[in-house]
Amino acid sequence: MKIKLNIWKQSNAKSKGKFERFELDGVDEEMSFLEMLDALNEKLIGENKEPVAFEHDCREGICGSCGLYINGHPHGTGSEIGTCQLHMREFKDGDTITVEPWRAQSFPVLKDLIVDRNAFDKIMAAGGFVSVDAGQAPDANANLVNKNKADKAFDAASCIGCGACVAACKNSSAMLFVAAKASQLSLLPQGKVEAKRRALNMVAKMDELGFGSCTNTGACEIECPKGISIEYIGQLNREYLSASFSEAE
Amino acid sequence: MSKLDAKIPEGPLSDKWTKYKASMKLVSPNNRKKLDIIVVGTGIAGAPAAASLAEMGYNVKVFCFQDSARRAHSVAAQGGINASRNNKNDGDSVYRLFYDMIKGGDYRAREANVYRVAEVSSDIIDQLTAQGVPFAREYGGTLANRTFGGVQVSRTFYAQGQTGQQVLLGAYSALKRQVAKGKIQMLSRQQMLELVLVDGKAKGIVTRNLVSGDIESHAAHAVVLASGGYGTIYYLSTLAVNSNGSAAWQAYKKGAFFGNPSFVQIHPTSIPVLNDYQAKLTLMSESLRNDGRIWVPKSKDDKRLPNEIPDEERDYYLERRYPAFGNLVPRDVAARAAKERCDNGFGVGKTGLAVYLDFRDAVKKQGVKAIQGKYGNLFDLYQKITGDSPYETPMMIYPAGHYTMGGLWVDYNLMTTIPGLFAIGEANFSDHGANRLGASSLMQGAGDGYFILPYTISNYLADEITTPLPSTDIPEFQEAVENAKMRLQKFLDIKGTKSITSFHKRLGKIMWDYVGMSRNEEGLKKAIELIDQLQKEFWVDVRVPGKLDEINQELEKASRVADFFELAKLMAIDALNRKESCGAHFREESQTEGGEAQRIDKDYSYVSAWEYKGNDKDPVLHKETLTFDNIEVKVRSYK
Ligand SMILES: Cc1cc2nc3c(=O)[nH]c(=O)nc-3n(C[C@H](O)[C@H](O)[C@H](O)COP(=O)(O)OP(=O)(O)OC[C@H]3O[C@@H](n4cnc5c(N)ncnc54)[C@H](O)[C@@H]3O)c2cc1C
Ligand code: SF4
Ligand code: FES
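^ Those are the sequences you sent over. The predicted structure of the assembly is below.
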C-alpha cells in the first residue's frame, strides 16, 4: 500500500519545528510501524536527505524507548501496545498518518520525534527505591508476601516508563507513572517501611519538574501500553495524604 | 608461549571463593572516596555493579547509550533467573547447579568460575527481593519456581514473562538511589568510542555525547565493561536492535584478549523473518516446547493450510529423530534440526524458512483455558506481531541469534588481560562454555555485579590508592579523542551511495549463512573472503548523512557496523580454528554417524583467547587449558 505521512521535524531543542510531508510506497501490512519508518529512512538516505530521528530499541514493547504520538494517540490507536507493536495492517492504502513526539513541558523535544524523558529518572532518584545495600538483604522467604499482593505489585511494576501517560494527559501529569512505582513498592513488605517518605518525595519532585496535577480524567489509563490502572493513583493519594498529616519518617 | 593466567585460587573447589575473599586486599572506607570507577553499561551486570560500588563508597561514573539506564537490553529477558536454593526440596544444591552449567556448556567453561556463580546465586534472589522485585509467590507467600530446559530440578525464579524487566528495575532503582546520594554520576545517551590506557593500565574512556555530539574524556582508576552481547552481528536477532559489540571490541584493540568469539547461541523458537524490512526477531519462550509439537509437511510443495494437512502427512521431525527427548531437546539441537528441514526444502510460510509449532493436540487434551493459563501472554505477543491466533493455527517459528557465550577473556578476578579493565555480564566470555542454559545469564550478570566484582576490583584498587587520577589533558586522552574524531569524520566524508543498514543486513546474511548454526571449513573461508570484500565496499561506498555535532543516529550505527566487520572476521577465524563440534558450535566435519555434535577433547579442551596484533595482521591464539577435577567429562546424547 501507499501511505502519506505528516511528520514533525525539528533540528534540535532550540529550533522551531514543523510538520513535513512524506510519501511511502510499497508498505506491506506485515510491517510494524517502526519498520515502516525504517523503510522511509532508507528511502530518504537513498535520496540524499536527512532521515527522521525516532527512538527505539527492544522493538517488543518492553524497554519503553519508543513512543510516538500517532494520529492523536500516544502509541497509535491499538490497545495496550507500544508504538513498536503497532502494525501497518491497522492502516489502509492511501491513509495519511500524522506522527508527532510526546508533547509535554517536562519532555522537551531533542530532535524530530525524540524527547528528553530524563525527568522520569529524576523522579525515580527522589524515592523510587528501597533503601537497602548489597549484602544487607534478609532471606527472600523471611518476609512472606501474599500472592494477590505480589501479583498486584507486579501489575504496577510492569510500567515501562514510556511517558505515554504524560503525553495523553491534558495537564501533562506524571501521576500514573509515579503511582505505579510507589504502589508497587508499598504493596510489598520490603517497601512498606519507607512508603510515606517515598510518596512525599516522589510527588514533590514531580511537581518541581513541572508536571501538571492530576484531575482524574483517566486518559492516561486508556493510552498506557501496559494497562496500568488508575486505582494506583487513588492508592498513592491516600498514602500521600496520610503522610502529609503524620510526620514522614 | 601463552600469557594467560586465570589466577584460580588453590584449594578444593568449594573453598576457593571463601578462602580467596578472606585473603584479598581491602580498601578502607576512607580511601574509597578517593577512587573513581567507570562502569560502561546499565544492564543486569552494570547496574548492580555500579550501585554496589557506590554503596561501598567509591565514586562511580556510569554510561549507557539509551536515554535511561532502565532501558538496557536486560529489560527484555523473559523466562527467569536461576538460583540453587533447593526451595522445592528436589535435590538442588550449589554443586548440582555447577554440574548442570558445566555439562550444559559442553565442558568448555572454567570450573572455578562456574562454581562461584552457583555459590552466590541464592544471595542474588535475596538482594533483588529486598530491592522490591515482585517475584512470583505461592499462596503461602513463599517464592515460586518453574523448571527450565536442560535440568531436572525446579530452580528458576520468575516474574511472569517479564523477569528481566523486573530484576533490572530493581537494580536500576538501587542505582538511582546512589545518584541521589551523589555517589553515582549517571551519563546516559553516551557512546563509548575508545578505551584509554595510561602506563599499560585502563584509566578512562572517550565517549560521544549523543545529543550534542561532543567528544568527551573521562578518567578513572579502573574501568568496568558491562556492555552486553554482540548477537546483533547477524543483523536479525532476538536482541534489542541497538545492542552491539563495540565497547568490547575497542578494548580488544587495546590489548584485551577476546575469548571464544565464535560461541553464539542460536535460539530455536523465534518468530521468523516475515519481510525484508524486518529489524528484529521476537523470541518465543523455550517453555512453549512443553506442549507445542514441531512439524513440517512430509511433501515439499504442500501449499495447504496447516490445519488441512492430516497427521500422516506431517513430519514431527524432532519426535522422529530424538524419540527420548522429542520436542524438548536442547536449544542447539532443536535449532539445527529446523535448519536441516528448511535447507532441504520442507520449510513453510512465504519464505520457506519456518516450521510449525502446533498446540492443536494440547488444546484438545487440556482445553483452551489451561493453555491460556500457561502461555496466554506469549500467544498474545505472537498474535500482535503476526495477526494469527496460536489457539487456532500453529505458530510459525525459526531459529534466531540470541546470546553470545564469547566475549572478553577474563581471569578469576573478572579482569581482562589489561590491568584495571574488568568485564562482567554477557560482555565477558564467562561461565557458559559453548552453550548457555536458560535463566543463567541474568544470574551470572547479577552475580558478577553484586557479589563478585565489588571484591575483586577492591583487591586491584588497593594498589592504586596512591596513584592520582590522571588528567584528561595528557597525551593518552588527547590522542584517543583525536582518533575518535577522525574516525567519525571519515564516515561522514565517504559520501557513498549505500546506507549503513544495507551493509549491516548483508554482513548479517554472511554470518548467518556461514558462521551461524552450522559451519564448515570451506564456508568459513568463504565467509572471511566475503566479509573482507564487503568491508572494503563499506569504507568507500557507505553514506552517512548529517553532522558530527547533533543527534545523528546513522553515525551511531556506523561505528557499530564498522566494528562488526572486524569482529565478524575474528568469529570466523575462531570457528575455523576449532575443528570440533561443541555445544552451539557445530562443525560439520566433526559429527557422529547420526549427525550429532562430536567434541574432540584431546585437542580442544581449551578456551580460545585471541590477541589483537594490528588491523592487517592475523590475531594470535592463546589457549587456556581447561581441566575438570570435580566433574566427569561425558558425551551428550538425546536420542
Ligand atoms: C529476548 C531475550 C530473552 C532473554 N531471556 C533471558 C532469561 O529469561 N533469563 C536469562 O537469564 N537470560 C535471558 N536472556 C539473556 C540476558 O537477557 C542477557 O544475556 C543479559 O541481560 C545481558 O545483560 P548485560 O548486563 O550483560 O548487558 P545488557 O543488558 O545488554 O546491557 C548493556 C549495557 O551496556 C551499554 N552499552 C553497550 N555498549 C555501549 C557503548 N559503546 N557505550 C555506552 N554504553 C554502552 C548499554 O547502553 C546497556 O546499558 C535473554 C535474552 C534475550 C535477547
Ligand atoms: S504508566 Fe503506562 S504510560 Fe505511563 S510510563 Fe508507565 S507504561 Fe508508560
Ligand atoms: S522499542 Fe522498546 S518498547 Fe518499543
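The pocket of FE2/S2 (inorganic) cluster (ligand 3) is lined by residues A 56-59, 61-66, 82-84, 160 (CB under 6 Å). The first helix of chain B runs from residue 16 to 23.

Shout if you want it in another format.
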